[in-house]
Amino acid sequence: MNLIRWIGKGAIILGIVSILPNQLKSQNSNNVRLKFKADTIFFEPVVAGVKVHLTYQFAVQGDSSQKTKIHQVYTGCSCTATEYNDDSMNAGDLGKVDLTFDSEEWGADTGYLVNKHIYVIYNGGSQVVFLQGRVFSKDTLSKIRYSKKLHDFGEITHQIRVSYTFVIYNDNFTPIRIENVRTSAGPLVKWSKDMIHYGDSSLIHVAFGAGNMGRFSKVITVSTNLGNQILRINGEVIE
What we know:
It is a single chain. The protein is mainly beta. It folds into two domains: 134 residues, Immunoglobulin-like (Sandwich), CATH 2.60.40; 98 residues, Immunoglobulin-like, CATH 2.60.40. The protein is built from two helices and 18 strands. The strands form four sheets. Strands 1-7-8-5-2 form a five-stranded antiparallel β-sheet, with no helix packed on it. Strands 3, 4, 6, 9 and 10 form a five-stranded mixed β-sheet that branches. The longest helix has 10 residues. It is rod-shaped and about 100 Å long.
């Protein structure tokens, strides 16, 4: 049994048109074809850099007196590699094409929709199968947003408690969790420890007692599973 590993190149796809038509024309008289269990395989959303492993299963159909074998599997770019068995097969035999898609260069914040063609060339003709799925750009602190990072209370009457609610948004594909919120002396904070999924938001409630007269500026450190970020409140306490 020979196992062939092929890494597709975009330039080779162009070559299929020019080098294969005559060959396939003569081979199409061979009454054998590969019947794939699924022409398109959808993979779950991934973050850029993850390698996706898929298997295309098929059955050999046609004239039992004729044998067939896969000659080559072409992919659309060097990001996709395939492995397959090049032994001769009889009608009724089962086979597979294993594919690995490297998503490293395909990410987008909103999820890049990958739609790739895989050309399977065999001595009964050729067939095209597909892979589809979304690839999100890598998770970063910069993809955590807030309604604002600085809130100015303006003038506050002495000993009157005031509050403000910051909204945190997650634009990362991977869920985030607020692990802790620390403040400099004065403010009280409350937050949810539930996971914040892609596209969702959560709240950070900040209350300030205005116990000391004069200007104030307070730092609020928000710690998540991706790192720390700084929020601020300021204002002036008057009589």
